[in-house]
Design goal:
Largest sheet of chain B: none
Radius of gyration of chain B: 15 Å
Distance between the termini of chain A: 10 Å
Number of domains of chain B: 1
CATH architecture of chain A: 3-Layer(aba) Sandwich
CATH class of chain A: Alpha Beta
Order of helices and strands of chain A: EHEHEHEHEH
Strand order of the largest sheet of chain A: 2-1-3-4-5
Number of helices of chain B: 4
Number of helices of chain A: 5
Distance between the termini of chain B: 30 Å
Largest sheet of chain A: 5 strands, parallel
Number of strands of chain B: 0
Shape of chain A: globular
Oligomer: heterodimer
Strand content of chain B: under 5%
Helix content of chain B: over 70%
Number of strands of chain A: 5
Chain lengths: 126, 105
């Protein structure tokens, strides 16, 4: 069973992403509304996520900063992180991809295909 | 459409009802920015706040099926990214966004 950690400061984005992944793919989800909360959730050994879907623009700690923080923790550094962004300009996309994340997905996402997008980005076959 | 898709679509429709007040709040922020721009009183803080509202609308409306809303919100975000956005253009785009998202009103 896949467990996806969704980190976004927007309530409705978290809610739509969670319901989409649960209903279309049968995956479990956990959510966090900030970078620090997300890092704490990822580090919970009882519920280690299969992947992290994280917003880029968040108040306080943004997505790229949270990603770098995750990379400093050896026990969770190998969890694949997909950044979620509404930035459509190529320069932003290249900057995010250059961080070393597993992929970049774009807002607004299609709830009916979000799970397929994640699977494709991570090379998941199931 | 499969069961999962039908269920997801129904849940999204219910969620849209829930988020509608927040969308209306963001549209009101954009209208206020247009009014301030028209009177020459659009300051940096208000422009930045309105730009953020447009960015959030651009990133969310398409999830609910309002792809055109996302496209218009992106134009508004780009306009509000300018130091002195054209008030008339901003007002027109705001009206277009409202028409697209709330065609019944």
């Amino acid at each position: 069973m896949r467990l996806i950690l969704i980190i976004d400061d927007e309530d409705d984005i978290r809610e739509v992403a969670a319901l989409a992944l649960e209903t279309t793919a049968g995956w479990e989800t956990i959510t966090a509304c900030s970078g620090p909360d997300g890092i704490r959730a990822a580090a919970d050994p009882k519920r280690r996520p299969s992947a992290i879907l994280m917003d880029v623009m968040m108040p306080g700690m943004d997505g790229p900063t949270a990603f770098r923080e995750l990379q400093l923790k050896p026990e969770i550094a190998d969890i694949p992180v997909l950044l979620l962004t509404a930035k459509v300009q190529g320069v932003d996309q290249r900057r995010f991809a250059g961080l070393g994340v597993a992929g970049v997905l774009f807002k607004p996402f299609d709830p009916l295909t979000l799970a397929a997008q994640i699977s494709a980005a991570l090379g998941w076959k199931d | 459409m499969g069961d999962a898709e039908e269920k997801t679509t129904a849940l999204l429709a219910a969620l849209w009802v829930k988020v509608r007040p927040m969308v209306e709040e963001r549209l009101a922020l954009l209208d206020a920015a247009a009014a301030a721009a028209a009177s020459g009183a659009l300051g940096e803080a208000q422009r930045t706040e309105a730009c953020g509202a447009a960015h959030k609308l651009a990133g969310s409306l398409g999830m609910y099926g309002y792809d055109e809303g996302t496209a218009v919100a992106r134009k508004i975000e780009a306009l509000l990214g300018e130091a002195a956005p054209d008030a008339g253009r901003l007002r027109a785009l705001n009206a277009e966004l409202r028409r697209v998202v709330f065609p019944e009103s």
